[in-house]
Amino acid sequence: MKTKKILLGIGIGVLILLFFSIYKISTFTLFDDEFKVVESIKIPDRSYIIKIYDIPSNASSQSYIQIRKIENGVEEVLESYERFDHLDSYSLGKDTLVLTISDLTLSKSEVKKFPLPQ
User: Which residues contact 70 (CB under 8 A, 6 or more apart)?
Assistant: First the structure.
C-alpha cells in the first residue's frame, strides 16, 4: 500500500515537471524582439516627430540604429545604421539631424548627418 502511494506521488511529480518543461520550451525566445525607442524628437516648424530606435539583433542581422518619421500616425523608416547599437548624442540643426552613434562591442563611434525631410 505504501509503495503504491509513493509511486503515485512520483508519477504526479514527473507529470508536473513534464508539463512545466513543455511550457517553458514552447515559450522560450532566443533573441530579444522588442524595438526600443531611444529618443523621440519633435521637430520645430514641422508636423512630424522623429523617433530613433535601437533594433536588437536576431538570427539574420546584427543590432542597428534606425530613424523613423511619424506623421499622422504613420511610421516611415528613413534611415538605418547597421552595426551600431548605441546613440551617444544628437543635435538638431536647421535642416539636419546630427547623430553620434557607436558600436559598443567594437568600441567605434561615428558622426552621421541626416537631412530632415520637408
Answer: 48, 49, 50, 51, 76
